[in-house]
Amino acid sequence: MSAAAAGADTMAPPPPAARGWSRLRILGHALIGLWALLGIALVAYLISAWNAEIFTKYAPMYLQGLWVTLSLVAISILCGAVLSVPIAYARMSKNRFVSALAYGYVYLFRGTPLLAQTFLVYYGLGSFHAELADIGLWVFFRDAFNCALFAFSLNTAAYQAEMLRGAIESVPRGQWEGAASLGLHKFQTMRKIILPQAALVALRPYGNEVILMIKGSAIVAIITVYDLMGVTRLAFSRTFDFQTYLWAAIIYLLIVETLRYGIEWIERRLTRHLKR
Amino acid sequence: MQSAWTLLSWGPQGWLDDIGYGVFVTASLAVATLPVGLAIGFFVALAKQSPEPSLRIAGNIYTTIFRGLPELLTLFLVFYGAQIGLQKLIHLVDPEATVEVNSFVSGMVALGVVFSSYASEVFLSAFKAVPLGQYEGGYSIGLSKGQTIRLVVLPQLIRIALPGLANLWLILLKDTALVSAIGLSDILRQAGVAARVTKHAFLFFSVAALIYLVLAIISSIGIHAIERSVSRQENAR
Lengths: 276, 237
Hints:
By secondary structure, chain A is mostly helical. Chain A is 79% helix and 0% strand. Chains A and B meet through helix 2, helix 4, helix 5, helix 10 and helix 11 of A and helix 3, helix 4, helix 7, helix 8 and helix 9 of B.
């Protein structure tokens, strides 16, 4: 016992090197101080600019706008997910023509700005007013929200198709062959062997896509949809109070950070069996 | 009713010259933003990989904020924030004066800040890919810290970061479309003006989208050329 204690005494680690105030450390603390100062200034500004009248008038509108943003993103992500399956399938097809067609779709939607696509649907389809009214679709495209939904779904379908393809192709060929040798049908292989493995790979890109869509959805404010950004623009144009934008920034940051941590948590949880 | 070809001709009858000016604005905005974004991004990455924890935290706060905010909101924050801030500053001196913030500069700052927060992540992963021995080798032949980074690490870093940065460039090119919302006459705004005047919205917005596509294709060709020449340099050694 005493021998062990004596051994531990001689084996004691050397004391950590004294950390002086190096130039880097001073710079780092100065920068953190700057951020802290900015944060304090933000809080102080929001407190000093506090206006109960504006708050009671616009807070419910902000909540309404938040709801519009979230529902727009949720619906278009779901529609995009459904659309992305045939596109990814076509992209992986052995038929050159079909895969070129799918690649063209993906390239078109990934190579042009989402704002241009949204304008094309919202203003552009107005040129075909009569034709759309004839087939009864004008009721749908008359509304700016639906136009945004349409453009966003097509856009995210292109991105999601590429993620789906990447995830499926990341599963080694041996998995297909193994399943085939067990006598599994192609569809069964996909459902039971490939997709569970691909889902793990695809989780992070899909999470990023949701975040990108939430941020990207702010542009619908330009085509008069009152989402969170649209409500903010409205409030700013009526009050000329800069805090309207700051509140929107805080809300967006909260949503994005919550999502990011949520996705990280899910990923950690789902990949427990891969960690050693 | 004018034909589509007349509308798209160059000159007083057509709109091609106006849209051409928009292409110039978009391209110059993207080209002007790139060095700003790259420089800030590099220094933020340098902070995020430093052994000093306080620097790392400061860098991470930067990325968290500007990656989390929608690009459009960042643009408005910069544009209106600078306007209101400068107005207040100037009113201290001269209560009558009014300031107008240049939308090109606002766009450059906002897009540069967003670009740099993404670029810092690309640089950071590239920093992690450069082996520690490269630094030690640099120090052992008597280079200073700054020289090691500049002469030894940076050339390797750029090669590793190139694909990620190329991707960010394509995103930047698309994000420039947002500046049409603060009144800068880029491709999309010029197309919008043409669409309002002529009532041929579908035609002009399709043309705008096609121009963005062409710019993306030209960029990809350029990026391929750069990547080829970089890998040739690598093979020559």
